[in-house]
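Quick one before lunch.
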Amino acid sequence: MKRTLYRNLDIYNEDTHIKGDILVAGDTIEAIGDIDMAADEVYDCTGMVAMPGLCDIHVHFRDPGQTHKEDIITGCAAAAAGGVTAVCCMPNTSPVCDDPKIADYQREKARNTGVHVYPVGATTVNMAGEKLADFAAYADNGITMVSDDGHPVANAELMREALEKSEKYGILVASHCEDLDIVNGGIMNKGKVSEELGVKGIDRASEDSIVAREIALADSCGARIHICHLSTRGSLETVRDAKKRGIKVTCETAPHYFMCNDTLLLKRDADYRMNPPLRDESDRLAIIEGVADGTIDCIITDHAPHTAQEKAVFEKAPNGVVGLETSFAATLTAFVHTGLLPYESIVRLMSAEPRRIAHIPEVRIEQGAKAEFIIADPDHEWYVEPEKLKSRSKNTLFKGTVLKGKVMLTISEGRVIYMDNAFGRAVKNPMDMLAAKIIEKNNPTVVGLDPKLEYIPEYIKLAAVEKHGPGLKAAAAAILRFNKEIRDAVCDLVPAVKPQSAYYEMYGHHGIKTLEKTIEYAKSKGLFVILDGKRNDIGATMQAYSAAYLGATDVFGQPEQAFGADALTINGYLGTDGIKTALETGGAMFVLVKTSNKSSGELQDRRLCDGKTVYETMGDMCEKWGAPYIGESGYSTVGAVIGATYPEMLAEMREKLPHTFFLIPGYGAQGGGAEGVAKGFDKNGLGAIVNSSRAVMCAYKKENCDERDFAQAARREVIRMKEDIISHIPAIRYPDKIDG
Ligand SMILES: [Zn+2]
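Model of the zinc ion complex:
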């Protein structure tokens, strides 16, 4: 079972706050607090907050019927990116969700997304406002909320019946409060701005009057009522008063009502149109007060995707904005960063209270609970760029604005369902991980896995051929078995392995599969994986390589790890473009600076017109590229490959490149003795890792022992090499403090 440790968080529930760590084992929070236990993966989350998964009880996912705008899958991806692990989907789909079969379809489609979808049933059949839907069937199906959202239930008597029935079945009625006679074709808030634009406005009374009506109806039958997307100062006053009188009313608002007012409509851009409309500044301030004093119970998004085409004409476009990916950031910006509310209140407004209102199971961060939480960087400022949203539609009214606070990681059902690109970089400097593993094992060597078939004992090859027949598949199978046995024999001794991609690629897709499994298996044994692929390309193509080997590939909105190595060897001769892209994925790299092959000097030793050699220049570039990515070990995520065959060069480069970690191949070759490679290390015995491939893999041949003893022979060689090198370098330890 995989265990992941998130360290140094501020951990919040609605009623608790502790500083500490969260250990997740499988799908469960195994421990929280000050944790001193081993884990497969450790993330330093200093400066970040953890909260239970958010819950949005008012979204429109357009599925079935209008999946060109959004479907359950893209909607859930948007939710995950916004830290939302539970959503209530409004029933105005096509067909309308007035039949449990539609609800079953929606839940089933969401099943593997990690986001819990709770379908809302229509209050009236086909949302036509004429006849109540079958509440008993809803209750049997597990539907806990009804609404005709998008439309009011115009007939007050029908609404009263719905409220009475809802009590009987334990269902909540959520009301979209709007008097359509008052609306009468209006498309925005009625006021100064609508006059200036010469556009028909909607009087606040359209909302205020129906809010008052719903409260009166709820009061008359002692039922609960939930007011959707509250937007006016008038309806806020009415709810506040009703709560004082003990009426069972709850209400919600959306970030756009506390972040924006109707002056945005002056842009004549339909991305600022929704229903209810943006009101004026007096309403906005009232909504802020209502959230701050608790009159407003929860924050929702009313996430309403529409395509750019549909939103093209200001007056004719449909109402609605997307919001799932910005609501957390907007709420922190408006309430936490202004000092109005503490984080605990954000948990209440965006997770705990909406779950209680909609009868959704509670989620907490505590020992033994299911792991369903978010990690956010509250101080991360970001531009909202519509094209980067996971939602299929891009109609966000926060486009081009800066919000403060970003969800970095969303965990649900025991897995990461969203990881922000900035997260890996923010919490885990891979060179620090490598340094930590070197210190732990007291061994600065890496086993190269370049398994030529001739290295592999005959009995393994025979067994593979017997099983698969002679061919690429047998070769790949033999290599996988060989690698596994070597790794099992040395994984307690070495910090890292370095598979050389070419020796896998040569066996086609069988070989690639073996490479993938080799990396996966090494990581499961806690080894740092340097993939020797010598890749590079220009920006976008390098982004693809980085996703493939270092980060994750975005597949239909979900991050999926393809190979997942920790570091990649890179050819730096394309300059900054590709390097910059790779660095942004958060992985580490080793750039070819001075290689150990015979002809390396032909180009690398040439002097440029400033008198520096090509390899010196490349070394300088590594220092420069890595400067923003220096970790606690003092080394950046940009390392350099420098051959062991030139000890004097190693010494010179160690001096000149204080933040560049060296990968040193060529140990054991001419000039590459321990004394020579020692010159690549710093005063703490760090800053370099020495590779040995053939000597380890073929140790059994050199020893002339039984080939079945190959793995133990490899172990003996690893020990010999380790002793040889550590006897020539300073004692390995963490630096006291980072210089530079
Ligand atoms: Zn609505």
